[in-house]
Amino acid sequence: MTTVDQNTNLAQPNVVADPEELARARRKRNEKIGQWVLPALVVVLTIIAWDRIVTVNELPHYILPGPDLVLEALIEDWGMLSESLVVTLRITVGALLIAIIGGVGLAVLFTQSRWVEMSFFPYAVILQVTPIVAIAPLIFIYVDNRMVGLLICAWIVAFFPILSNTTLGLNSADHNLRDLFKVYGATRWQKLRYLQLPSALPYFLGGLRIAGGLSLIGAVVAEYVAGTGGNASGLAFRILEASYRLNIPRMFAALLLIAMTGVVIYALTSLVSYLLLRKWHESAIKREV
Amino acid sequence: MTAHARPASSTLVGEAAIRARPNVLSMNYVDKVFGRDVVALKDMNLDVNEGDFISLLGPSGCGKSTALRLIADLIHPTKGQIKWANPRAANDLSVVFQEPALMPWATVEQNVYLPFRLSGKPLSAVKSDIDEVLALVGLEKFHGAYPRELSGGMKMRVSIARAMVTYPKLILMDEPFAALDEITRFKLNNDLLALKDKINCTVIFVTHSVFESVFLSDRIVVMAARPGRVIDELYVDEAYPRTETFRTSAEYAAHCRRASDTLKHAMELGQ
Questions:
Q1: What is the ipTM of this complex?
Q2: Of A124, A176, A183, B264, which sits most exposed with the smallest number of CB within 10 A?
Q3: Domains plus CATH for chain A?
Q4: Chain A contacts of B74, Cβ < 8 Å?
Q5: CA distance A284 to chain B (A)
Q6: Using omega within 30 degrees of 0 as the cis cutoff, is the peptide bond preceding B100 cis?
């Protein structure tokens, strides 16, 4: 309401614009530009510095290749690297999807029954705190299919933040609203569908952002442990393979692709989160003053 | 909307008129004990009649909210009974809390639609009911707004609209205006009386405020703490509709003095 009043005042010709407010608007505009320009500038400067260090010190390419060599490797090996990228992506996305289904499903089950939660939540924690590198070799002993083994490893790493966040969210529905649902004789399903799931959405999306990155980490670590080569090898295997051959430029190229994948996953999950929450949740709303 | 309309109850006020109204529900010697030995409510008797506007007035800890939760069937009596005169249907009862308790992810219209949604009615079938009740609370232009876009008073109006949209027999209100500023509170007091008259329901209203209870109700049930119990019942023998002139009248002041004295007595008992 106050913003409307201020606007009508500003529209009057005899009102002098407040210098403090003008300065604030200017600062805001600059921040918006800086948000994109500054990181880009840092990248450019880093690449130039990297190139200078390699050239001036005459570093051999098997110690530290220059950015030009990395780019060359990326283009030259694109056929092989892109195939590996697809493999890693398939494991990452597959693990994330199973983590979403498993995490949300378990969380719903936990909120339906305290007994189930008490029985199984400790095991979810144990699964989470045990390093995946320690479990992975066992998984590859018992699971014949390599792809399934990789998926299981990546899933173990990714599902916990979704489970714990969604459980928290399902339990944080407004108490008055819970009472109101009870007064109106809502069924268990109605309470879940119209009250608990919407309440849990912001929490779930927070978990999803973490799980997206973790599923990539899980996929890469699992590939390292699985180690076998062949056609269906992911980016992690390419890094291992290149290191044996002292093909450092290709290592950097593969590393670059993994990092870019992580950034894209983060950006996508953030976008989904923004689109789902922008109308009502505090986290997605820009403050006006 | 005419399908919902019930014959208007008598506009007569005063003890005799109120006692002659048909019964909605009664509490008979109801006790509620929390934990092992905290007596929240002791021997509460209350006959709620059609068209009553009952205020439960008392200091903190006197069991007024407990009484409301018992009537809403959210908790159950340790001893004694709460009996409805007719078997209670799903939409006979509504509750308004101190917080508006709106769903932040849903629009105003979707929030008001909630009781119908839970009883399985499609939105198209009740759209006109929702439109009408939103117009009654002065929010006809805010169907598509989200709760965060509304002021505190407007959120409370949505909450009241949601409670009234089903034309319930009984509405329970737990200090609904306590968190609002005085100007907004006065306005909502007036509007609440107009709405109650319009949908012709019974209200039980929990409040700390002597002035609010006198302005709104025809019965004031004064309660004391430790243990929570009813100590007196006052009748505000003033006809409805009550307007701003009533708020400044000598009669209003006299009722307030009487209620204040009783409340003071209740506080001494609860020491």
A1: 0.91
A2: B264
A3: 2-56 (no CATH), 67-284 (1.10.3720.10)
A4: 179, 182-183
A5: 12
A6: no
